[in-house]
Amino acid sequence: MTDQTLRSASAPSNGHAVVVGAGIAGLVAAQALAGTFARITVIDRDTLPAEPGPRRGVPQSRQVHGLLGGGASALEELFPGFQDELVAAGGALGDGQVDHHWFLDGFRLRTAPSDIPGYGASRPLIESVLRNRVAALPGVRITDDIEVVGLAADGPDRVAGVRVTERRADAQETVLSADLVVDASGRGSRAGVWLSGMGHPQPEESTVRIDLVYVTRHYAKRPELLGGRRLGVSVVPSPALPRMGVVMPEEGDRYALLLAGMFGEEPPTDDAGMLEYARSLASPEVAAVIESATPLDEPARMRFPAGVRKHYEKLKHHPEGFVVMGDALCSFNPAYGQGMTVAAMEGVLLRRLLSEGTAQLPGRFFRAAAKLVDTPWALATGGDLRFPQVEGKRPPGDKLINKYLERYRAAASVDPGLAATFLRVANLIEPPGRLLHPANVLRVLRYAPKATQAAQAAHAARHDPAPAHEAE
């Protein structure tokens, strides 16, 4: 089909779209749809809070969330002024290389001024800012306490709406008709089951099991902690120590502190246990927060067994009027903070495809979204497959690449340019291939030995007993 044909098949001005889920993916979907459909209904099974706060249907909303630079750019494109609104609502903004310390394989990335944005805000605050913007759009209605129980079909090849029921004992099932349904209901999506009810096969899945357990607790800010930096600190798990620690500022003059572990390394939830766990990390700043800051709530624990990618793009037939996005399409290891960012980038993609017309939208979206997801999925699974406990096929040259990246992480603790490139790739601002640029390879070869020797000397100084005359 030509571009001209696609444009001529645009949605009618009185078209109606339904979005399942009022989380981040659902809200960016609604914003993307607003330029095409006159009416948009966003449905959520939760009671949506009037003020920012966690909710039952998003259990991970109590946990630390990271908004990557690529996601912030996508949200700013979809919601002009988003960054200013987030800061005005209490979020923090800083230089992602200066104001946040990153520890990779025990090495701290070298700090230097950069153009990499870093954010500190809770998931509920980000969601609240976006929900207020979407709710103000003409023709948009956000409804809560309603459950989508299935799709309404117009034959086997077209979705014509959703079957819904209010969340009360005597509620009756009704049909909400729509020209397009977007499933943004998260990891618990029933889209595959719904499609199988129409006679379509469920999509293939790629799964990478990581057995991640993480705990988040909030603490009152203290000016002397984190060296006075605007943002925080992240200690990324490695095969040598599959533990993680993060401290990030949030609204309400508080820190969100996360401890995580993989493959049986489960962080405790008692004060003494959390402190001991934090002291095993490369950065002492995580333990310093637990030791000296006042806790504001009880620890919240969550398990994430595996990253799952659903390959809708591989289905031979896609019924018209139905697309899937966000965690319902691909859920990532949360240690990499990619979920909100990828959802926002999919929103930008959806708006672009809609500007070309609605004909064959599902097939076009799933194919383009697969290409979009390829990079963050490769980054996440590549990091996961470093761990010998993770089952999965390693790509050709995997050992060689991992050896180079180990040296890269070490060299990036000396060379700020290497550190900046690493952060741009991790923030989905630049492609992973930048790490292998010849100039970067030469710098890795130059600085990695120096960084490794310095780390070995520092380790020896910490663990070798001082001579008696020095101890006096």
From TrEMBL:
User: Which SUPFAM superfamilies does UniProt cross-reference here?
Assistant: FAD/NAD(P)-binding domain
Cite the FAD-binding domain residue spans from the record: 17-355
E.C. number(s) listed in UniProt: 1.14.13.8
What name does UniProt use for this protein? FAD-dependent monooxygenase
- Do you know which Pfam families this protein is assigned to? FAD_binding_3
Q: Which InterPro entries match?
A: FAD-bd (IPR002938), FAD/NAD-bd_sf (IPR036188)
Task: Name the Gene3D superfamilies for this protein.
Answer: FAD/NAD(P)-binding domain (3.50.50.60)
Supply the alphabetized keyword list. Answer: Monooxygenase, Oxidoreductase
One of the entry's Gene Ontology molecular-function terms is:
monooxygenase activity
